[in-house]
Amino acid sequence: MLKSCLTKEAAAKMSDRQLKLDDQLCFALYAATNAITRAYKPRLELIGLTYPQYLVMMTLWQHGALNIRQIGKRLKLPANGITPMLDRLEEAGFITRMRDRRDRRIVNIELTPRGAELEKQAANIQLAVVCETQMQEGALNSLRSELQALTEKLETEGETTD
Known about the structure:
Layout: H1 8-17, H2 25-45, H3 51-63, E1 66-67, H4 68-75, H5 79-91, E2 95-99, E3 107-111, H6 113-122, H7 125-133, H8 137-161
Antiparallel strand pairs: 1-3, 2-3
């Protein structure tokens, strides 16, 4: 049996609502993620990217050339989840793959001039989506910080239970 991290009163209240969809943190996060992704979609289509491809491109714009493992770690995705996105980005002419000179097993991903230029076109996309949320800057920063802390806590907890 799991030991509760809540007081008995809080645990009793939660058990009454335990299987109600609208009371689930996971569903609130899932619904918000879908809504945000939908807000990005038409804007990203204008520059020829999907949302997951946009995340890869932002990682490369921020950090420069990285290998597949580094991109996966940054995006919290396995390498096999990134490979199809990289295939499409390469076909579109936004990235190139280069074997590492010291270790041929490592594939480095680099922006092409076209991929670097795309950053200018993408610059206002996040601002447009932020405006669409109608949230104040402080509230957005607080929400982002809370979500980052939650992610870190759950990832750390997952490491101790593996």
